[in-house]
Amino acid sequence: MVKKCLSRMSWKLSRTVLRRGKGSNPFSLVEYRWPGWIERMAQFGLVRSMSKKACTGDNAACEGFFGRIKNEMFYNRSWNGVSIEAFIKFLDSYLHWYNEVRIKLSLGGISPIHYREQLGLVA
User: What is the pTM of this model?
Assistant: First the structure.
């Protein structure tokens, strides 16, 4: 899945961190040190990250984002009878709002996408 995603990236972000969770998977460390994985990360300019089990300081932003999605979008409604396709459409709509419409005071009262445009990070 990561390889497919990386092959579709038409841009690079400096200092983008790709985190692999160690969790209870004993093979994670082996995969993380595999030369093909290291080469792929270098090819796309990604920083590898893998903290010790239950020590996820570098993952805090990601965990916070997923927590926000669950609280704002997932938990406050019933998903019984909702198809995968309908759920994906709903999630896509939420992510569009989150990135392109939502006003963030810490960014000067503009949306995240407008902030990135001002910095010249997106076209």
Answer: 0.56
